Structure to design on (124 residues):
């Protein structure tokens, strides 16, 4: 029996590590960091965003976490994220996946999920 995506991503600990690294990469990425750097000025809110992101990926991959944040469309409304920015986010996530030795099939599954979300995020 094949492991769940949650298990293949390393469970709670693996997903937490991947999400935190991806967000760190977003903050370093000159193409999208302007959207993330203001969070440094609001550390409590930033920690909430990080935890929501962890719970979102955890729950969406079959894990036990409960995501209690807003839906993707509401969360990104008014941000007017363009397709290029979205691709930079995906690239950063894939760097984090690679750094955590996530296999190719699992990365394909993650990409399919990220691609399915794009209509809820781009140009909202």
């Amino acid at each position: 029996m094949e492991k769940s995506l949650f298990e293949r991503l390393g469970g709670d600990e693996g997903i937490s590590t991947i999400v935190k690294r991806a967000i760190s990469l977003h903050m370093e990425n000159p193409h999208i960091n302007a959207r993330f750097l203001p969070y440094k000025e609001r550390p409590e809110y930033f920690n909430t965003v990080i935890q929501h992101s962890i719970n979102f990926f955890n729950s969406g991959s079959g894990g036990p976490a409960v995501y209690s944040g807003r839906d993707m469309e509401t969360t990104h409304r008014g941000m007017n994220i363009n397709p290029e920015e979205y691709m930079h986010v995906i690239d950063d996530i894939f760097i984090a996946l690679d750094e955590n030795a996530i296999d190719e099939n699992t990365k394909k599954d993650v990409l399919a999920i990220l691609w399915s979300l794009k209509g809820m995020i781009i140009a909202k």
Summary: The chain has one domain: 8-121. DSSP finds seven helices and no strands in the chain.
